[in-house]
Specification:
The protein has about 190 residues and is mainly β. The protein is built from two helices and twelve strands. The strands form two sheets. Strands 1, 2, 3, 4, 5 and 6 form a six-stranded mixed beta sheet that branches. The chain is globular and about 45 Å long. The relative contact order is 0.16.
């Protein structure tokens, strides 16, 4: 086989791989309270913890190539089945620009508000994360078996979340029997 043919085949293989990766959509997550559900426009609005309103579009039965952790997806609701204004959720979405976010699933926590703690990671273990909060306290959170974490590479199971000490995070958690249970962890990567 000639050297030029080998180079052409290598280039074709790389181009094919790149287009496949590009076609996959990475799923991200954000937490907040649902303030509007509009089935006529196929939109759901979530007020995030920073107070901003994020409007998400959705499509019933839309299938696409998503990079979405199967453990995370297992405990979610399809957006077209959701109609609970006032519920606290983690919204899983693909971002196609700040004005074109498409929601692909939700995790519903009901009307009980998730608590919030922000700070720097002291250490992580398989089932817990210790954070020195912005208020100066050091808090250890048990990671729920169905917790999720937002990372630069998309949403992963909370048990797969692994960052270096000093990384800034926001932990959304519930309290059960005096324990703080992390439900959603957001890496402050940007």
């Amino acid at each position: 086989m000639s050297i030029w043919l080998k180079r052409f085949l290598l280039l074709a293989l790389i181009s094919s791989a790149c287009s496949t990766i590009y076609a996959q959509k990475i799923v991200h997550g954000v937490s907040g309270e649902v303030t509007a559900v509009n089935p006529a426009d196929d939109t759901i609005t979530v007020k995030t913890t920073d107070g901003s309103d994020w409007v998400f579009k959705y499509q019933k039965g839309a299938k696409s190539s998503l990079v979405f952790d199967k453990d995370v997806r297992a405990g979610t609701i399809e957006p077209y089945d959701f109609n609970k204004i006032g519920d606290h959720v983690v919204a899983y979405y693909v971002d196609q620009g700040f004005v074109n976010r498409t929601i692909v699933a939700l995790k519903d926590f009901g009307t009980s508000q998730l608590q919030t703690a922000s700070g720097s990671v002291v250490k992580t273990k398989h089932h817990e994360i210790t954070v020195k909060t912005d208020t100066g306290a050091t808090e250890t959170f048990e990671i729920s078996k169905d917790a999720t974490a937002e990372t630069p590479g998309g949403v992963v199971s909370g048990f797969k979340f692994d960052v270096d000490p000093g990384t800034k995070v926001t932990v959304r958690y519930t309290e059960e029997g005096g324990r703080m249970i992390a439900q959603f962890i957001r890496n402050a990567f940007g």
